[in-house]
Every structure is written in C-alpha cells, then in structure tokens.
From TrEMBL:
Keywords: Membrane, Transmembrane, Transmembrane helix. The chain crosses the membrane at residues 106-127. The lineage of its organism: Bacteria, Bacillati, Bacillota, Bacilli, Bacillales. Residues 7-68 form the HTH cro/C1-type domain. It comes from the Bacteria. It holds the Pfam family HTH_25. The keyword S-adenosyl-L-methionine does not apply. It comes from Geomicrobium halophilum. Residues 136-195 are annotated as: Disordered. Residues 170-180 have a biased composition (Low complexity). SMART domains: HTH_XRE. This is Cytoskeletal protein RodZ.
Amino acid sequence: MAELGQFLREKREEKGWRIEEVQAHTKIQKRYLLAIEGGRYNELPGAFYARAFIKSYVEVLGLNPEEVFSEFDHDLPKPSKEAIEFPSRVERAKTKRSPESKKSTTVLPAALVISFLVAIVGIIWFLNIGNGDVASDEEEGSPNQEEVEIINEPQESGNNEGDGETEAVNGTEEGQGNNGNHEEDESGGLSYEETTGNYNSIYTVDSASLEIELVFEEGIDSYVDFREEVGGTIIEVADPPAEALEQEYDFSEYDTITINAGYTPSLTIYVNSEELEYAVDPEERDLQNITIEQNG
C-alpha cells in the first residue's frame, strides 16, 4: 500500500469514519477513494483528477493540503504536460469574442459598392444637366429665371449637405465616445479584490446573474470543481477537457462560488462573458482557488 494512501486511511480511522462518510463529504465515488488509499492511481480518471481528489480527501480530514502534498510529493501522481503551442488567452478571446472583426470584413466591400453607385448617379446627373443647358441655349439664346434657379439650387443643396455631413460626422464621433464609455462601464462588472491564503483570489461581480464559462486547451488534462467556499463541499465537478473543451455553468442562485482549478495555465475562465484575469500568475502557481462574490 502506498505511503500517502496509508496515511489518509489512518487519519480517517482516527476520526472513526467509514469510507462512505468520506464519500458523502467529498462527493467522490467510493471506488476512487479506495483506489487512493490503495495507491492505485491508474484507476482514477487522469493525474489531475487524482491530485484534486486527494486534495479534497485531505481537506475533509481537516489537514493542510500544502503540507501533505509537500510531505508526500514523491508519492503523488505527476501530470504529464505536452509541449503544444496554443494561442494565448488574449488572442483566443479576441478571435472568439470580437464581433467587430467580423463586421470590418463586410463594411469595406459595402463602402466600395456605395461609392461606385454614387459615382454613376453623379455622372448621369451631370450629363442630364449639361444636355438641358445646351437645348435651352439653342432655343432661347440665354438662360431664363427658371434655369438660373435650377443651376443655383444644386450649389445651395451641396452646401447644406456639407453642413449636414459635418454635423453627422461630429454627431457620430460624439456617439462613439459615449458608446465607448458605456462599454467600459459594462466591462467593469468583474473586479479583483484580494488574494488570501491557499492562493484564493477573490473577485466581485456587479450582477444578479453568475454565469461561468470554462475554456480548456486541447490535449492538456485538467480538473475543476465548484464549491460555496474554499475547502467546502463540492457543488459540481466540471467535465474532463477530453469530453468538452468549452463548458458553461449557471450559479446565479449562489451569492458566492469558489472555482477550484487544478491547472490554470491551460484554463481560461469567463464570468458573465468577461474574461477573468488571474491575480496569481498561472506559470508560478498552477493550482488556484477563484472566489466570485455577487454584489447585484
């Protein structure tokens, strides 16, 4: 029997607990708990799940996961990290969540078509006016009052249109400025507050809804579960990345939710469609807790 498994079993028996009681507290299947106690990590669904299950087991026993992991580091399953190059979270977010980029591809062709039509209409108008002037000169020899008015009206109209265009441009710029400020206000819904012990970063969101999206990088194993507080009872366990790279969860009924993330370098988190920026660099600390508190 493995050292760590023996240690956990002894601590469980000291509390007088049966394995079923640990299962009730951790929401981990009994066969997985027995596999941990027996050191049969190959029976668990991946190395990251093994480490996450062990962490939950340790916390339920009232022990410090950091100390236990440090003491039994030689006995813990080691996740394999594949050397795969992926776009950064920022690049992926721009690609996935920037509808403006799609709009820009259609605006240019439309502008060219409109310019071409305006040019054709202008040429036809010019030719019609020119023919009318020639006919009038041949019949009467000089322009009458109506012709003078016809010739002058386009100039006045052009001036008015110019003023209108200036006002329209100014109005558009002002409108864009207002829209920009509005977007910034909306994007400020998710705010970082502080990082406490156990690498728990706390954020607040000014919304009555709490929708969380997880985006995993392909080919890299990871583990995520959701709790009402750090070290608390597991509410839900995310599907393995091999089953779904993008997963959405709605926790609007909870005032606070804690995301227990097993490997943050391969995980992007969105809260109400806004990307969460890690307060702790994932390259320095891969296992993190992320707590989201609702203020709405």
